[in-house]
Design brief:
- It is a single chain.
- This protein is mainly α.
- The protein contains 4 helices and 2 strands.
- The chain has a two-stranded antiparallel ribbon.
- The radius of gyration is 34 Å and the shape is elongated.
Length: 173
């Protein structure tokens, strides 16, 4: 007698379905990884570029302010604080279209942010707006920072970057 053993031989069709299924899952996983990784990489690159641009802008603003201060030094020495029209003309000459310059004076006896006097500005500030302008400078902490900067000739240890504030005048400029 012959005994035949029934063995199941896998058909090529069943193996292909399994391979296609696992291949599809693998491809989907790679696609998801790409869709997650690319935005993260782009975000970090844009964030780095934005920080670099802000550092460059702050450095440029700081340097421009230093140059304006150095250019005003001879006029301040020559005209003194007693001749505001000469100082107003000098400030007007140094300010550009997009640059607002405010010349403030603090007598040696003035120890706090209330001790500053508004001397000149470009663009000019109307007399009606002087109190509002001063209040805005106090609110932003500008006068407090100026008070501290008047107390030293070199930046304090650890200060490597100038501070910058977005400023809108009471007239809306």
């Amino acid at each position: 007698m012959k005994v035949q053993a029934k063995t199941k031989i896998p058909t090529p069709k069943a193996g292909r379905v399994r391979q296609k299924g696992s291949s599809l899952v693998g491809r989907l996983g790679v696609l998801i990884a790409i869709f997650v990784a690319v935005p993260l990489i782009l975000y970090t690159q844009f964030l780095t570029a934005d920080r670099d641009q802000q550092t460059l802008l702050l450095t440029s603003v700081h340097e421009q302010g230093r140059l304006i201060a150095e250019a005003l030094r001879p006029t301040l020495i020559q005209a003194g604080i007693a001749k505001p029209p000469a100082l107003g003309d000098a400030v007007e000459r140094l300010a550009g279209e997009e640059t607002a310059v405010k010349l403030l004076f603090r007598p040696a006896a003035g120890a706090d942010s209330a001790g500053f006097f508004f001397v000149a500005s470009a663009p000019p500030v109307a007399i009606d707006f002087l109190d509002a302008e001063r209040d805005r400078l106090v609110e932003l902490g500008v006068l407090e920072k100026l008070t501290k900067s008047c107390e030293f000739t070199q930046p304090p240890e650890g200060v490597t970057q100038p501070s910058a504030l977005r400023y809108t005048t009471p007239a809306g400029h």
